[in-house]
Amino acid sequence: MGLFGKLTAQIEIKSDGDLFHQVFRHTPHHVSGKSPDLVQGCDLHEGEWGTVGSIICWSYTDDGKQKIEKEIVEAIDEENKTITLKVIEGNLLEHYKSFVIGIHVDTKGETNFVTWVLEYEKLHEDIEDPILFLAYLIKVTKDIETHHLKI
């Protein structure tokens, strides 16, 4: 078993893919209104919303525990609807030396897919792969989808 890992999950959404991408690019601070049981807030610490180099901090509840993650926006590809976030502080770094989160929205005809990619390096071999965190992100995705379908 190695220290480096990559997990990927793709989920079909019925809501608009472009809208989903825009939420994470320009208005991540609105996610708490779309998934209030899981996300309590997202604050801008440096830069501007939707720009590479910006630093954002998430307050969230995972597995019944209050957590935080501070991330730097490493890349945004508007054409391919991808965003790359590198965790620079927070609960995930208690278990991982590095942690990068990728979000990709793909539209095929009338169908939209959200793909989450987690790339990480564990601090040591006894650390579990972040499968539960990936499941958490899928729940947030479903909450955002449900919110958008109500509008």
UniProtKB/TrEMBL annotation:
GO biological process, one term: defense response
Pfam families with a match to the protein in the record: Bet_v_1 (PF00407)
InterPro entries (alphabetical): Bet_v_I/MLP (IPR000916), MLP-like_ligand-binding (IPR051761), START-like_dom_sf (IPR023393)
The organism's place on the tree of life at top rank: Eukaryota
Signal peptide interval: none
Domain Bet v I/Major latex protein: 2-151
Xref: PANTHER family: MLP-LIKE PROTEIN 423
Name this protein carries in UniProt: Kirola
Lineage: Eukaryota, Viridiplantae, Streptophyta, Embryophyta, Tracheophyta
